[in-house]
Amino acid sequence: MRTLKEILKAIGLGDLDVPEMLVRGPAKLSEATNQDLSFLANMKYENELYSTNAGAVLIPFDFQPAQEVSAHLIRVDDPHTAIAKVLELYSKVERNYGVHQQALIEQNVQLGEHIYVGPFTYIDEHASIGDYTTIAAQVYIGKNVSIGRNCDLHAGVKIYNNCVIGDNCIIHSGTVIGADGFGFVPQKDGSYNKVPQTGNVVIKNNVEIGSNCTIDRATMGSTLIGNGVKLDNLIQVGHNAEIGDNTVVAAQSGISGSTKLGEGCMIGGQVGFVGHITIAPFTMINAKSGISKSVQQPGSKLNGIPAFSFNDSLRSQSIYRKLPELQKRLSEIEEILSLHRK
């Protein structure tokens, strides 16, 4: 176990004046023991602070407890960021290095130093793997694929030919990078001819992609995932789509082909985008919204199907809930008017 002082120093909080206590690890307020470090970032859980058994708790600088707290309180700029660093500290495990004897690597593959390739993984010709990258079991890496340094590819990831993965990327199990885009031309007889998808997918640095996502290769050129993008599980990104730097997308969202999301956008779960539109930087879109046209104003907040101003949508929802009452009142007015006409 580490001391509290060692932990705070390791996550960049300097040499704070804290009690001499050993910390078993991070824990939720409701489950912590006197050997655990917890945090309070969301005030919904403030009451748990007063009953927690945690030995120490990270809290915001400006927070003033309403009751006595038994834990030692450590004031930080952002408890969420601080506890994330603690979790990272405790989640580090010793990496395995080397190529498993049951992995199959074709000729002319460039392997970096200190990498790991797990069993039943296949790496095709002319692929390159950067230093300190870990590739788990049953991963498929196609021809001419380039994967950068310090990446983690979890079990069952599939990366098709010619795709490019930057440095410090994490791709979780079941995700497919570079499958064909959904391109078909309708014919006079009602059938469809396939349009060859000759491009690739380019994923830049510090990207994390959840489980069972699909990012389609471009028809021509590249489908582009920018630096620092975070994709949740079960997300579809269509061919030639572009996602700007540091945009985050929650689960089950779908981005149609050739749609471009600007930097710093925040996309809720189950949001759907039509194709060939542009979303301005720093746009925020509420869960289950449908985006049917381009968003021009940076920092827009949208909700609904089709999506429009978030505040206007809340007012509309309020009116919608009152529709039965309004309909009844309208019927009463119509009845009164009909009597007057007689």
Percentage of β-strand residues: 25-35%
User: In terms of structural class, how would the helical and strand content be classed?
Assistant: alpha/beta
The N- and C-terminal alpha carbons lie at a distance of 89 Å
**Count of helical segments?**
5
The CATH superfamily of the largest domain bears the name Hexapeptide repeat proteins
**Largest beta-sheet details:** 12 strands, mixed
* Strand line-up across the major sheet: 7-10-13-16-19-24-27-30-33-36-38-39
Q: Determine Rg (CA atoms, Å).
A: 26 Å
Fraction of residues in helix: 10-25%
Shape: flat
What is the CATH class of the largest domain?
Mainly Beta
Whole-number count of domains: 2
CATH architecture of the largest domain: 3 Solenoid
CATH names the topology of the largest domain as UDP N-Acetylglucosamine Acyltransferase, domain 1
**Beta strand count:** 39
Summary?
The protein is an alpha/beta fold. Helices cover 17% and strands 28% of the residues.
